[in-house]
Every structure is written in structure tokens, then in C-alpha cells.
Amino acid sequence: MRDNVILWWILTAFFAFIGVVYTGWNILAHPDLPLVNQIEWVGTVALIFVALMSAMIAFYLDRTHKAQNGELPEDILTSDIDDGDPELGEFSPWSWWPIVLAGSAGIFVVGLAVGQFLLPIGLAIFVVAIIGWVYEYYRGNFAR
Q1: Residues 6+ positions from 115 with CB-CB distance below 8 Å
Q2: Which of 22, 32, 46, 107 could be disulfide-bonded to 122 (CB atoms 3.0-4.6 Å)?
Q3: What is the CA 49 to chain-centroid distance, rounded?
Q4: What is the pTM of this model?
């Protein structure tokens, strides 16, 4: 995580520098215009905001790294891949319910864009899919 913090601070400095260069270049390229019109505001504001967002991510990662009170396996040169491989839980590779759930979300979004009559259909499929996914281990071959 320490390397990520350093990379984000480098990105912050890069985008801040490029924002200053971009703004200065536009001012020098249009000397006949008033100062307000010399600056190309969309690019300048976008580069400043990208620098601020990079700084926000770097600050968050730095605070998170300091709150952990230790090094992550990714930061230790002698660590193995298995050291940073936690148990994530149990997943069903044979389950079709996530596909049905994604289809219901797709129908719902198409209903927002095309016709509102699809909204209750997408919602009904969503309810069936989420109940099926939650209770798939309570019946059938994989019941516990």
C-alpha cells in the first residue's frame, strides 16, 4: 500500500504541474484576448479536479496504511502470493441466479430509457432472482 500512496502523490504532482502548464500555454497562445478569455476553462478545471481527486485518494490510502499498524504482504519483498490470499467466502460456480439478477437490472434500466411498462417486469424478475439466489442452498441437490 505504501507504493500505491507514493504513486498517487506522484500523479497528484503530475496533474497539478500539467494544469499549470496547460493554463500558462493557453495564456501565451492568445495574447490579444483579455485574461478571462485567454484561459481555456474546461481543460484547466478538469486538470485541477483530477489533481485534487488524486490527492484525495492518496490521502485516504495514506491514512488507511497508517491505521493498519503494519505492512501488507504486498509491501514485503520476501512474502509469498499465499500470504495475501485471504478466504473470501463461498461462491456457487454453478449458480444461474446472478445472470437472472443482471438480466432483471438490464430490463429495469431499459424500462427507464424506453417505456415505463418494463419497470414492474424488471422489478418482479429482480425479486424472484434475489429470493432464488438467497435460498438456493435450502432445496435441491445442494440443500444443507
Answers
A1: none
A2: 107
A3: 17
A4: 0.56
